[in-house]
Write a structure and sequence with these properties.
With 159 residues, the protein is of the alpha+beta class. Helices cover 28% and strands 28% of the residues. It has one domain: 3-Layer(aba) Sandwich (Glutaredoxin), CATH 3.40.30. A seven-stranded mixed beta sheet has the order 2-1-5-4-3-8-9, covered by helices on one side. Strands 6-7 form a two-stranded antiparallel sheet. The radius of gyration is 14 Å and the shape is globular.
Length: 159
């Protein structure tokens, strides 16, 4: 499936988080949400992306930020997420989608090409969802370097 279109209601989901809770998108209404999809815990690009969000936390959360909720999603297990989060001090939840069903719904699971080789897997992508639950910005294919800056700009536009 393609990434949900800007202006459309983001599909609801219910996924297990690294802290043992469950997260439902519909329960986050009233706050902007950054939903980023990444292939695997503890790999170089995924670690860089997670640490970029971590390092920019004051800009997306709390008094100085936009009040956004950042959620990372991959097919890794809750246990793997908990270890990854602890190792790098990540201040946001990591959600487990081992069946890839939610990622498929968001266009983040499918065929991709890496170094000329085709495979099926997680497509690194990000969405910003506004306070009403609608897609405000989307990056269907993310390059890690500089990406968090683009996400922050989109959050600032939400006011």
């Amino acid at each position: 499936m393609p990434t949900p279109a800007i202006g459309t209601l983001a599909p609801d989901f219910d996924l297990a988080a690294d802290n043992g809770t469950r997260v439902r998108l519909s329960e986050l209404r009233g706050r902007p949400v950054v939903l980023y999809f990444y292939p695997r815990d503890n790999t170089s690009g995924c670690t860089t992306e997670a640490c970029d969000f971590r390092d920019r936390e004051p800009q997306w959360r709390g008094q100085a930020g936009t009040g956004a909720v950042v959620l990372g999603v991959s097919g890794d297990s809750v246990e793997s997420h908990a270890k990854f989060k602890a190792k790098f001090g990540l201040p946001f939840l990591l959600l487990a989608d081992p069946s890839h069903q939610m990622m498929e719904t968001y266009g983040a699971w499918g065929e991709k090409t890496l170094y000329g080789k085709k495979s099926v897997g997680t497509i690194r992508s990000t969405l910003v969802i506004d306070r009403d639950g609608k897609v405000a910005a989307a990056w269907p294919k993310v390059t890690v370097n500089g990406h968090v800056d683009k996400v922050l700009e989109a959050l600032k536009k939400l006011g």
